[in-house]
Amino acid sequence: MTRWSLFVKTLALCIALAGLGLGGWWIARRVGLNTRRDTAIAQFGAQTAQDAPCAQGIRRDTLLVNFPATFFVGKPGDLVNGDSVDVVPASQSISVFYNSTFGAMRTITTVVMPDLLPPNLTFIPLGNPQTVDTLAPLIRKAGRVIVATATDAGTDIRFAGCLGAENQSPPVVYDAIIGDRLLLTGWRLAGNSDAGVLTLTLNWHVQAPDLDDVGVFIQVFDTSGNLIVETRGYPLAGASPSRLWRLGDQWRDAHVIHVNNTAVLNGNYRILVGLYTTADGQLLHAYDLAGKRLPGDMVTINTAVK
Question: Which of 68, 141, 146, 255 could form a disulfide with 90, with the two C-beta atoms 3.0–4.6 Å apart?
Fold first, then answer.
């Protein structure tokens, strides 16, 4: 009996010590995540004028999506650069939170989708993670979409794009028509040599509805024709896949390209852009305004970095 009593006491002590260790880890993890959250919000507040919302002249409200509720419970009324900030807990769906918290008259003009969990996290928070489909109605209302991601080097936060207009007639002049589906109607390039990145913002007009899932293929070459970097990915950093776009939509789609080449960052480069179907990776046919098929089905962008 004494032996069993000692065993029970030892087991209880082990459980208690494990609980304390887990509790300490939990607290440390929560503090780390909240610190990252605060950093991301501060960086968001410092967004430059080039990332101004598509919707101008109205009060801006910010919706932070997918912070795990176990680490941070949203507090409506947090302020970022004059914006009202609300957080959707991971344990609650966007539709429930949106309807119960905001009401029908609430205007959301910025959606921030943070992935602030540290890399290689072994603990998966309980909750109801949001998807691009559940986000779609809010993305359509947002003046801009911001994506914040935790990296080993810190928190990376960037403008991903926005819906500029709906139900628009096709423009008479455009740069390319790709797959008879999307018109490329313009672009903007910005370089940051200190950060080693190019930001390429593409303007798309939806020519045909019910798009298959397509991604954006980007290649960057130096003036000698050497391939420096290439990227593939969904529009708006995956926040709004093309299958959710509608006829007459005009989208602003920003891509951050990491480039470790000073000459390219200073404007000496050539960029090719195309669209591919994610199902098979094949590039869609691309044509210029005159109906001539573009070499390699890629649009050439030679605009100098601003």
Answer: 68
- Alpha-carbon distance 198 to 204, whole Å? 19
Is residue 134 a contact partner of residue 147, using CB atoms and an 8 Å limit? no
Amino acid at 36: R
Identity of residue 271: I
CA dist 268 and 294 (Å) reads 22
- Residue 99's identity, in one-letter code, is N
pTM: 0.78
Round the average pLDDT of the chain to a whole number and report it: 74
For the chain, what are the domain ranges?
1-163, 166-306
Place of tokens 């780390």: 32
3-state SS class at 21: helix
**SS3 (DSSP) at 151:** strand
Strands 197-206 and 214-221: unpaired
Under CATH, which number does the domain 166-306 receive? Answer: 2.70.50.60
Distances (CA, A) of 178 to 138, 160, 208, 214, 247: 27, 21, 11, 11, 15
Q: Which of 79, 71, 67, 75 is nearest to 41 (CA)?
A: 79
Q: Would you give the distance in Å from CA 36 to the centre of its chain? A: 17
What does the block give as tokens for 232?
């593939």
